[in-house]
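Quick one, tokens below:
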């Protein structure tokens, strides 16, 4: 039995502005609204990676930002750092580094991660200082709010909100149900 809530759908369709792993031709799309400072998102991160290793040929993964700045003061800046890395073709590498280092998200830490990824540090720092990607992060957040997201992580399976556990069993069951329905 699935734990999707009827009528709770993804309000903003996928676009070229999304961060996507996997082809559009697969039968299931898993969208996560996440926050790099959120411990529950940090716990869900290896679950998603394990899912993609196991059934990645049937699932496309999309990540969208939903920084909960009232409880995670570094989340917005970390999201902007991920976008600054995306501008240099390294979003997923930065995404993984941020989740691996959730307790170290000060500006100096973000610059160190950019250096570890061999990004153009001048460009990276300038993008952070100017807030170059603040609008992109805000658009993701507002799209999440329109979709009923009020906490992180929030997952959508084929456009329908998954309200069950974000553990391997919960997400896998939801994805398997979506595969059977395909």
């Amino acid at each position: 039995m699935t734990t999707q809530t009827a009528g709770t759908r993804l309000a903003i369709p996928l676009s070229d502005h999304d961060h996507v792993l996997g082809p559009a031709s697969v039968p299931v799309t898993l969208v996560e609204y996440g926050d790099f400072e959120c411990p529950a998102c940090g716990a869900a991160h290896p679950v998603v990676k394990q899912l993609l290793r196991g059934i990645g040929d049937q699932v496309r993964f999309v990540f969208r930002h939903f920084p909960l700045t009232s409880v995670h003061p570094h989340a917005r800046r970390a999201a902007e750092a991920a976008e600054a890395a995306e501008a240099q073709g390294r979003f997923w590498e930065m995404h993984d580094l941020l989740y691996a280092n959730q307790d170290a998200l000060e500006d100096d830490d973000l610059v160190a991660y950019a250096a570890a990824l061999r990004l153009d540090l001048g460009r990276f720092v300038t993008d952070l200082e100017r807030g170059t990607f603040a609008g992109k992060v805000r658009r993701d957040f507002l799209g999440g709010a329109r979709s009923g997201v009020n906490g992180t992580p929030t997952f959508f399976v084929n456009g329908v909100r998954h309200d069950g556990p974000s553990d391997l069993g919960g997400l896998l069951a939801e994805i398997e149900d979506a595969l059977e329905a395909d």
